[in-house]
Amino acid sequence: MQKAIAEFIGTFTLVLFGCGAAVIAGPSIAGAGTVGVLGIAFSFGLAIVAMAYAIGPISGCHVNPAVSLGALIAGRMNVSDFITYVIAQVAGAIVGALVLFIIMQGKASGWTGGMGTNGWGSGYLGEYNVISAFIFEVVATFIFLVVILGVTHKLVPHHFAGLAIGLTLVMIHIVGINVTGVSVNPARSLGPALFAGGAALSQLWLFIVAPFIGAALAGFVYKAGILYNGDAA
């Protein structure tokens, strides 16, 4: 139960403050005061850093079904815990998006219903096509999981693991925001999409399938001992 609560809180925080930066401090709302791509990237990354040190000792701070899948395949968690984690992560993402939605409804003007959702194609940020979006999400999630599984390996000092993981997420967002808005996390995509509807929901499949593929590949790399032999948490 403690692990589930920790994962709920962690994913809630990631969605509320990561997507919140895009919605509340983004150009469509803040205008000239926008935090821009760099600010949004750091908001997601810093949310992970904060939660890594807050709940990491309890649950490992996955806050991402793709991370949990990679850990499962790498042999770092069992199926029962995986299911518990995913349920808690999805619930946290939905509640985080709900809180953001309620906050935005209190704005007098300027909000058009955006929720910091992921997407691709005509009218979405850099207007990249579905192939570009799919490739980016697979590769970015793979790299993200390689870092996570690497810095949390038993042979590696863990003191700065949270910082390394958070900064990796910042790096991924700096490059990928204009491609897909950056998911690498099915729960992060699902929560806001439920409240935005439309294209965000119809395109949601990519932000579930691609991150899972990238995470699974990273998990297999570690399970096979390609990077580390005798891998363990």
TrEMBL record:
TM stretches of this protein: 35-55, 82-104, 130-151, 163-184, 204-222
Keyword flag DNA damage: no
Keywords for the protein's UniProt record, in alphabetical order: Cell membrane, Membrane, Transmembrane, Transmembrane helix, Transport
KW GTP-binding (keyword) present: no
Pfam families, sorted: MIP (PF00230)
InterPro entries according to UniProt: Aquaporin-like, Aquaporin_transptr, MIP, MIP_CS
Compartment(s): Cell membrane
Membrane topology: Multi-pass membrane protein
Alphabetical list of NCBIfam families matching this protein: MIP
Record-stated family: Belongs to the MIP/aquaporin (TC 1.A.8) family.
PANTHER family linked: AQUAPORIN TRANSPORTER (PTHR19139), MIP17260P (PTHR19139:SF199)
Name of the protein described by the UniProt record: Aquaporin Z
Lineage: Bacteria, Pseudomonadati, Pseudomonadota, Alphaproteobacteria, Hyphomicrobiales
